[in-house]
UniProtKB/TrEMBL annotation:
Entry annotated with the keyword Membrane: yes
The name this protein goes by in its record: Major facilitator superfamily protein
Xref: PANTHER family: MAJOR FACILITATOR SUPERFAMILY, VACUOLAR BASIC AMINO ACID TRANSPORTER 4
InterPro entries: MFS, MFS_dom, MFS_trans_sf
Topology term for the membrane: Multi-pass membrane protein
Keywords: Membrane, Transmembrane, Transmembrane helix, Transport
Provenance organism: Listeria fleischmannii 1991
Length: 451
């Protein structure tokens, strides 16, 4: 029996994990041309962002739990099929809201990749005795950031070549490749040692609470206050249901007993809100505020992802989690401050500096939070825990989508962009405060990763 990590698993693990980030980054430069093509505003196109993350926020913990019970192969293959179906729908639909449906299906399809990868890392680590495979965790982060590098630029070129539909249809060949890789490489055998029934009532309550909150955030008006009330009621029923269940959808008892892990989830929520707000808000502002083309806007997003890759590679093996998290928070605050100084005549050099600053904070915070999760989570529920981490990230993306729809719909796009930046500046301050409060727990993890 081999005592080294099965390198055949790397390709499907990486490909499955990057399907979500490449679609997240490509859509950033497609929102404006989609709005023009269908005659809708930014408040409508924001649903293309939020709908995908609504689906992933629900699907990620569900699929993660199923993977913990049944193994990664079947769930991975089903996910790739859904990704392909979404690409086909988006390629032919003449109706804007069917495009939103395609994004929901795409979101569900991408939910299996990351929990499957984390499950395989854990199972391979157990098999080989390499309990802390820092190199493969770093590879997953860098891979996601690498595809994000080409995402906005690729999206811009695809739109230039054949319109926004090519941004969606590229998922068809990606889905075929991922399916074949998963079918021939992922292990078929899996001992069902933790099989349990899914708490579908809990999933329903969670879904109602999440959608109601999202709908209200997308339409923040007194007319829709009933959706906020529904969020509170469904949330209360969800908590009561989960506390009474022997095997709940989301184990709230585990969360209450693991406060450091809860703070990790809160940090990823705040960081994701800021990061996605920048990605979608900045891309739209470059096109409608700065007057750049989709290709140029995509090119100007590249410094963000390039600097993110570089900082991830440099800091990937470092186990100084507090330093990475705290420095990332400070750089995040400074980068947002620079956004408040942008105008429709800001120089390209200045915009590149701003974009690179966000890349540094993205690389540091994404890597640190993923590594911290690996050690804070219960090994028996690593799939569900990693799925829940992504869920908090997707909640941040939904909040970013809602703020983008609200602020970027302003007649003065630069003024709206500055409003969104100020909101994120407040979130960055909260992030720094929580990180400082949690410094002792993060410092205790120093030296945990084997190099």
């Amino acid at each position: 029996m081999s005592t080294t990590f099965n390198k055949k698993l790397i390709f499907p693990m990486v490909l499955g994990s990057v399907l979500n980030p490449i679609n997240s980054s490509m859509i950033a430069v497609a929102l404006v041309p989609i709005a023009v093509a269908f005659g809708v505003g930014s408040s409508e196109t924001a649903w293309l962002v939020s709908a995908l993350y609504f689906a992933t926020a629900i699907g990620q913990p569900v699929v993660g739990k199923l993977i913990d019970s049944y193994g990664p192969r079947k769930l991975f293959l089903i996910g790739t099929v859904l990704v392909g179906v979404a690409g086909v729908i988006a390629l032919f639909t003449p109706v804007f809201w069917l495009l939103v449906v395609a994004r929901i299906i795409l979101g569900l399809g991408t939910t299996a990749g990351y929990p499957a990868a984390m499950f395989l890392i854990k199972s391979e680590g157990k098999r080989t005795g390499e309990d802390n495979p820092a190199w493969i965790l770093t590879l997953l982060v860098i891979s996601s950031q690498t595809v994000a590098v080409i995402g906005p630029t690729l999206g811009g070129f695809l739109i230039h070549l054949g319109g926004f539909r090519l941004v969606f249809s590229i998922n068809i060949p990606l889905a075929v490749i991922a399916f074949l890789a998963g079918y021939f490489v992922l292990p078929k055998e899996h001992t069902k040692t933790q099989v349990s029934k899914m708490d579908w009532v809990g999933v329903l309550y969670f879904s109602i609470a999440t959608f109601s909150l999202l709908f209200f955030l997308m339409n923040p008006h007194i007319t829709y206050i009933s959706f906020l009330v529904l969020t509170i009621i469904a949330g209360f029923l969800f908590v009561r249901r989960e506390n009474a269940m022997k095997d709940p959808f989301i184990n709230l008892d585990v969360l209450r007993g693991n406060r450091p892990l809860i703070r990790t989830y809160i940090r990823i929520l705040l960081a994701a809100t800021v990061q996605y707000s920048f990605m979608y808000g900045f891309a739209q502002w470059l096109e409608i505020g700065r007057g750049l083309s989709e290709v140029s806007a995509g090119m100007l997003m590249m410094p963000t992802f390039i600097s993110s890759i570089i900082i991830s590679a440099l800091a990937g093996r470092s186990s100084k989690y507090f330093i990475k998290t705290f420095v990332g928070g400070i750089v995040q605050f400074l980068s947002i401050s620079l956004l408040l100084l942008t105008t429709n005549t800001s120089s390209i050099i200045y915009l590149i500096i701003v974009a690179a600053g966000f890349g540094i904070t993205t690389g540091l915070l994404n890597l640190a939070n993923q590594n911290v999760l690996y050690f804070q989570a219960d090994p028996k529920t690593i799939g569900a825990s990693s799925g829940l981490l992504r869920t908090f990230s997707y909640f941040g993306a939904m909040l970013a989508g809602a703020s983008s729809g609200a602020f970027m719909n302003h007649q003065n796009p630069t003024f709206g962009f500055h409003q969104m930046a100020f909101l994120n500046l407040c979130l960055a301050l909260i992030f720094i405060g929580i990180t400082w409060y949690d410094r002792h727990n993060l410092q205790k993890l120093k030296g945990s990763i084997k190099k």
